[in-house]
Specification:
The chain is an alpha/beta fold and 329 residues long. 28% of the residues lie in helices and 27% in strands. The strands form four sheets. It has a seven-stranded parallel β-sheet with strand order 7-11-6-1-4-5-12, with helices on both faces. The chain has a five-stranded parallel β-sheet with strand order 14-13-15-16-17. The chain has a three-stranded antiparallel β-sheet with strand order 8-9-10. The structure holds flavin-adenine dinucleotide (FAD).
Length: 329
């Protein structure tokens, strides 16, 4: 029986969804390994302690709260030092964090500080005696690599959306702590944050993604994709690189090998051929629907449902059907 340490990722005064996913993954692992505790490190500006309750709802036993104005923005060196320091305090079998932009940066830093093995971007974690067995999609998601990781602690980062946050309420104990390094003395500082589309769902967090490709013919026709996303109400808009390179959509919406990697519940590919570089970013989606006029398009090989037809006709009809379904008709 041993404990798991989680990095509860924040942005400003809010918890990120990957934090709840990491807590869920850690809870499952702790229970499967004999019932250890889940300790979550929560770094943020004054007031972040109020988020501890939510971590308890998803299965954390202890919240280690570090309030510091320097954590208003991501402070990689101070967070890594604080996480490693806590991990060194002993008794932790694993350090779990999300494979988000922050997690990609933090994971190797923490592993280096602990001289610990790291498994990144994993989609499952199981205990197997003294080892942990994890799965990691590799080679642009064409293979799933099974890794056996030994050592204590090990550092593991979880692929966003691979673990669905599951409530498992605990009466969380809160402990306040100091940062192990001063966040205002970072060598790399975040000067500015540009939010791509305020109020819009983040691609990594949206349960539904409607994504468009060159088959839409013009930037103006992307309105059809936006309308379909709006009809769902919980959808984000994505795009292929062909589209973002042509300036039809911002690069922040690009999905694929050189863009965002996503695993929503539902991915709707509109006028997308299914090039390997695009599939690398979305083939782990739970359900894939493809609309393409070419029945031989490679996207149909990974699709669960395919519609062969002109997007300019199919998408408005689909949008209307979703609106009707949402309205309960
Ligand atoms: C190093 C490298 C990295 C890359 N990284 C990425 C990446 O991260 N993400 C990415 O997406 N791509 C990436 N690419 C580009 C990738 O190879 C493809 O060129 C790109 O994904 C194609 O985009 P598309 O599907 O929109 O366009 P196309 O391949 O041109 O496909 C358009 C599709 O629309 C269909 N169509 C046309 N008209 C209609 C219509 N009226 N109704 C219905 N269907 C229609 C066509 O049948 C076709 O299948 C990368 C390439 C390289 C070399």
């Amino acid at each position: 029986m041993s404990n798991i340490l989680v990095y509860a990722e924040t942005r400003g005064a809010e918890l990120r969804k990957v934090a709840l996913e990491a807590v869920t993954a850690a809870r499952k692992l702790a229970d499967a390994a004999g019932g250890g505790e889940v300790h979550a490190l929560l770094c943020g500006p004054a007031g972040i302690a109020a988020r501890a309750e939510q971590l308890g709802t998803y299965g954390a036993d202890v919240a280690i709260v570090v309030e510091n104005a320097g954590f208003e923005r991501f402070a990689r060196e101070a967070v890594a030092a604080t996480l490693a320091e806590r991990a060194k305090s002993g008794g932790f079998r694993a350090v779990v964090l999300g494979f988000s932009a922050q997690g990609r940066d933090l994971g190797p830093r923490v592993a280096a500080k602990l001289d610990a093995p790291i498994a990144s971007d994993v989609t499952s974690i199981e205990a197997a005696g003294d080892a942990l067995v994890v799965k990691h999609p590799g080679f642009a998601n064409k293979v799933v690599v099974t890794l056996q990781v030994t050592g204590s602690p090990v550092v593991i980062s979880t692929r966003p959306a691979a673990f669905t946050p599951a409530e498992n309420p605990k009466s969380i104990r809160t402990e306040t702590a100091q940062a192990a390094a001063d966040p205002s003395a970072e060598k790399v500082t975040v000067k500015e944050l540009q939010e791509g589309g305020k109020g819009k769902l983040d691609l990594g967090e949206a349960p539904v993604i409607v994504s468009g490709g060159r088959g839409l013919k013009s930037a103006e026709n992307f309105k059809l994709v936006e309308d379909l996303a709006a009809a769902f109400g919980n959808a984000a808009v994505g795009a292929t690189r062909a589209v973002t390179d042509d300036g039809w959509r911002p690069h922040s919406e690009q999905i694929g090998q050189t863009g965002r990697q996503v695993s929503p519940q539902l991915y709707i590919a509109v006028g997308i051929s299914g090039a390997i570089q695009h599939l690398a970013g979305m083939r782990t989606s739970k359900t894939i629907v493809a609309i393409n006029k070419d029945k031989e398009a490679p996207i149909f090989k990974v699709a669960d449902y395919g519609i062969v037809g002109d997007v300019l006709e199919v998408v408005p009809a689909l949008t209307e059907a979703v609106r009707q379904a949402k309205a309960g008709h």
